[in-house]
From TrEMBL:
PROSITE patterns (UniProt xref): ABC_TRANSPORTER_1, ABC_TRANSPORTER_2
UniProt KW keywords: ATP-binding, Nucleotide-binding, Transport
Chain ranges of the ABC transporter domain: 7-234
Organism: Pseudoalteromonas lipolytica
Keyword ATP-binding attached: yes
Keyword Nucleus tagged: no
Record-linked SUPFAM superfamilies: P-loop containing nucleoside triphosphate hydrolases
SMART domains, sorted: AAA (SM00382)
Protein name in the entry: Cu-processing system ATP-binding protein
CDD domains to which the protein is assigned, alphabetical: ABC_DR_subfamily_A
Gene Ontology molecular function terms on file: ATP binding
Length: 306
């Protein structure tokens, strides 16, 4: 597998008059990597995807996708290697599900059997001969996923892909993401629904007002947020903990026996705890992605270009 980035953005700015949607953004997406893209409404996530797709061009900076400038005429050869699911999917209402997918398959140069296999993959076989106008929001989202998966693309852009999906369908979707990643597909996944996402991404970018606040794997984002780790104990009384002066120099007591501690002090605290003869159990809770995201946003400057 080549180490050449699938996507490379170098000091990219996109402005619409006085509005700066993306401000001096640089990032890379490696082959087979899943990158989470997180931020509030208006943070610049959709604009970033449009720049990668070549729908819009940067005001400053450069964007490269699969070795080409996505907004250039020379980029036609990469179109079939890119899959995209927009936040709000829209299809021809009077066509059936399979007719819609056959249409997109033909545009990308794939046969009807491939479209039928994808219909089955997203669980729409029983409804494939029904008009799309009869589909629920969740069914339309499944059809959109099938369209995005056409041809096992090298690059897949997913904008709020689990909107309208029930818990079972959401689990199945992330299984498909993991499978595509295992086969070398690079994925950018934009979502407001953070619980459960962290198990399926390699890195994340957090945007606010068009600017990158943080980028990295979950461990580096936790370090950036500098949130406390929660250590739960069983078998040790609150009074014992409070009276342990050595221990209390490193922790804050919460809910009687829960200890809040900075990551750099974690091992010192654990060494102190294992000295207690009546200690039955220790449970360590790291901040999850949602907590890290909220903390990094709260640390951001409130003034910005938008």
């Amino acid at each position: 597998m080549t180490n050449t980035p699938v996507v490379s953005m170098n000091q990219v700015t996109k402005s619409y008059g006085s509005l700066t949607a993306v401000n001096n953004l640089s990032c890379e997406l490696a082959p087979g990597e899943v990158l989470g893209l997180f931020g509030h409404n208006g943070a610049g996530k959709t604009t970033m995807m449009k720049l990668i797709l070549g729908i819009t061009s940067p005001t400053n900076g450069s964007v490269d996708v699969l070795g080409a400038k996505p907004d250039s005429k020379a980029a036609w050869h990469i179109r079939s290697q890119v899959g995209y699911l927009p936040e709000n999917v829209s299809f021809y209402e009077h066509l059936t599900g399979i007719e819609v997918l056959n249409y997109f398959a033909k545009l990308k140069g794939f046969n009807k059997q491939h479209a039928k296999d994808l219909i089955a993959q997203v669980g729409l076989t029983e409804a494939m001969n029904r008009a799309v106008k009869t589909y629920s929001k969740g069914m339309r989202q499944r059809l959109g996923l099938a369209q995005a998966f056409l041809g096992k693309p090298k690059l897949l852009l997913l904008d709020e892909p689990t909107v309208g999906l029930d818990p079972v369908a959401t689990t199945e979707f992330y299984q498909q993401v993991d499978n595509l990643k295992a086969h070398g597909t690079s994925i950018i996944l934009c979502s407001h629904v953070l619980p459960g996402v962290e198990r399926h991404i390699d890195r994340a970018i957090i945007l606010s007002k068009g600017q990158q606040l943080a980028c990295g794997n979950l461990a580096s984002l936790r370090a950036h947020a500098n949130l406390d780790i929660r250590i739960k104990t069983r078998g040790v009384s609150p009074s014992e903990l409070v009276n342990d002066s050595q221990l209390m120099t490193h922790v804050e007591l919460c809910h009687d026996t829960d200890l809040l501690v900075k990551d750099e002090n974690k091992m010192n605290v654990l060494r102190e705890l294992v000295k207690y003869r009546h200690l039955d159990d220790i449970h360590i809770e790291q901040p999850d992605l949602n907590q890290v995201y909220q903390q990094i946003l709260s640390q951001a400057p409130q003034k910005g270009s938008i």
